[in-house]
Amino acid sequence: MREHLKKRDEIRSITEGILKTYGTLDPKLQHLELNPLPDKTSVINILDAILEVIYPGYFGAKHLEQSNIEYHLGDLLDSIYSRLCEEIYRSVRPECAHEDDPCKHCYEIAEDQTVALLHGIPALRRQLAEDVQASYDGDPAAKSTDEVIFRLPCDLCDQRVSHRSRTQQ
Predict the structure, then answer these.
(1) Cα angle vertex 131, ends 73, 56, to 5°?
(2) Which 3 state secondary structure label does DSSP give 120?
(3) 18, 68, 87, 100: most buried, per Cβ within 10 A?
(4) Cβ–Cβ contacts within 10 Å for residue 168, how many?
(5) Among the residues of 33-144, which ranges form H helices?
């Protein structure tokens, strides 16, 4: 296969061309700092875990019962707490004027925001229960609330796409 890659020597000049744009574009298109920004994959995984907290048994672990839900939920929330704190820290740290690293001030902000979000989940679940019931009641084709819950993330995506296309017109 390598004998077919005859233009590999051009990669060096392409690399040099890209490197010349670093630090010269406005706005900058790179973040080459000691403190990394939030990681997209990590944030998506955290959101999946939050979805599992909101809809246990529907998303995430499937073998949940009354006998193990408290342990599973506690473990899941602890994992969300630590991972979300880290990602929020990464989002606030670049704007912080404090010199210490790691920054205790930024970690405090991250913990406060994480705990505030997690405290909101019970009220969110109550609201979502009402929304699921309203969707079921308003959709004659829906066979069960289970179907509505499984379809819910797709419905939300459809609403975002529909809203985006209306605002672009």
Answers:
(1) 20
(2) coil
(3) 87
(4) 6
(5) 40-54, 69-92, 104-119, 121-138
pLDDT per residue of the chain (169 residues) written in tens, 0 to 9: 567 778 888 999 999 999 999 989 999 899 888 888 999 999 999 999 999 999 999 988 888 899 999 999 999 999 999 999 999 999 999 888 887 888 999 999 999 999 999 999 999 999 999 999 998 999 899 999 999 998 875 554 444 444 444 445 5
Q: Which two tokens stand for residue 121?
A: 């989940």
What residues are paired with 59 via a beta bridge? 56
Half-sphere exposure of 129 (CA within 13 A, CB side): 7
Sign of dihedral through CA atoms 126, 130, 132, 133?
A: positive
Q: Which domains does the chain have, with CATH numbers?
A: 12-120+144-168 (1.10.3130)
pTM listed for this prediction: 0.77
Residues 6+ apart with CB under 8 A from 24: none
